[in-house]
Design goal:
- This protein is mainly α.
- The chain contains 20 helices and no strands.
- Helix 6 packs antiparallel against helix 7, helix 8 packs parallel to helix 10 (154-170) and helix 17 (295-328) packs parallel to helix 20 (381-397).
- Helix content is 73%, strand content 0%.
Amino acid sequence: MGVEGTGSNILRLRRKKGVTQEVLAEFIGVTKTSVSKWETGATLPDIQMLPLLASYFEVSVDELIDYVPILGREQIRFHYQRLAQAFAQEPFGEVLAQCGELIRKYYSCYPFLEQMVVLLINHAGAADTQTDTEAAFEMSDGLCAHILEDCQDITICKDVAGLRGVLNLMRGRPELVVRELREAGLCGERRNDVGELLVTAYLMMGEREKAETTAQIGMYRSLMGLVDYGIFLLEAGKEPGVNRLLLERLDGMMALFEMQGLSPNAMGKYEYQAAVYLAGKMAQEQDRGQCQGQEQSRGRADTDRQEIEEEAFRHLEKYVLACRQLFADGIRFHGDRFFNRLDQWYEELELGTAAVRSGASVKESILQGFENPAFGAFKDQERLQRLKERCEKELSKTGGL
């Protein structure tokens, strides 16, 4: 608590209440001189008087002593940067003591405490002695325990669980990492954000097979995430040049990871959305051609439109191939020759490898997809109808009824 802040607050609250120093002094049971010294900052009230003063002024003790237990983002950044600089220039033990003081002061400000854990983990290796290093580790571990027990913010708790895993790895406790992450429901087989911790822990424990399985799962989930985010970005993107580059990179990724065999469902989603995007681009080119006054400009727009339509059909062709493969696989999730540890992982999930919808329902959705209004921009509607009929025939052959 600050002398000047507390004194000025008493002065402000007394004037707001409209009482004299004598009246306040009589209520509290001190002299007028004591109240005067409080207000000028010469002295502080005895700690036992704070609740009485707060009650008299109808405020909290925190407000009375100008104590703010919650820090804003800029304040958190300021303290982090100041302490990081101090670790580089001042004795480690002294800076650690400063950290302890701030932690006690803002013990209920969990965003700040989380960053203090980050600070201590990042600088523990700079300690002059093993004793100081262990002191930083203990302070970090105590903070993690406090946050995980008392904080109600799920995001902060999830992040801190990961930080505690890093801390335990630094302390050579990989078994603890595995146990705590599983107890918190953050096992890497289900959550990609802690998969790296588990892989490292398994390697430290000599569990190479578990490390390989976890790494494969993490890589596979990241790959599926790239496909999904690529589709979202394609739908949201406004710059044609960027979208063109996005299509090229996603096409390359599909080929590189042999997505038709690995995940025909993911490939089908991408190829279909790429065709929808290109159909929309065709409509834009058609509008542009109609607005152009010169015959040469209209001709160029028609050429561009034809090229885009051909590209869209190439994606729809791949979409049909992906749908056929999906039904040939029995609409089941699986790995491949590279991701050769996925099958066991899928079997251990609640729904196993089975699809979440029936084959008939999936087939109906696939065929309805050809009726998307966006495809009305195609000049060759007969080609679109033939492709739909071919798709229906292919699915029937593979049991998609």
